[in-house]
Amino acid sequence: MKSSELIRKLTKAGCYLTRQGKGSHEIWYSPITQKEFVIPNHGSQEIGKGLEKKIAGI
């Protein structure tokens, strides 16, 4: 899954961008878990499977 696809899914789930992190990383907030988490936004590069699984619970 690419960053843009993940961001679309997160937005649809009610998550939102809170601030820009270092470099190409973004800090997002999940109202479901009430936690912030980091998403790497590397354009067209694929997101790692481990990160996808970790975020899947959001």
UniProtKB/TrEMBL annotation:
<keyword id="KW-1277">Toxin-antitoxin system</keyword>
<protein>
    <submittedName>
        <fullName>Putative RNA binding protein YcfA (HicA-like mRNA interferase family)</fullName>
    </submittedName>
</protein>
<dbReference type="InterPro" id="IPR012933">
    <property type="entry name" value="HicA_mRNA_interferase"/>
</dbReference>
<dbReference type="GO" id="GO:0003729">
    <property type="term" value="F:mRNA binding"/>
</dbReference>
<keyword id="KW-0255">Endonuclease</keyword>
<dbReference type="Pfam" id="PF07927">
    <property type="entry name" value="HicA_toxin"/>
</dbReference>
<keyword id="KW-0540">Nuclease</keyword>
<keyword id="KW-0378">Hydrolase</keyword>
<keyword id="KW-0694">RNA-binding</keyword>
<dbReference type="GO" id="GO:0004519">
    <property type="term" value="F:endonuclease activity"/>
</dbReference>
<dbReference type="InterPro" id="IPR038570">
    <property type="entry name" value="HicA_sf"/>
</dbReference>
<dbReference type="GO" id="GO:0016787">
    <property type="term" value="F:hydrolase activity"/>
</dbReference>
<comment type="similarity">
    <text>Belongs to the HicA mRNA interferase family.</text>
</comment>
<keyword id="KW-0346">Stress response</keyword>
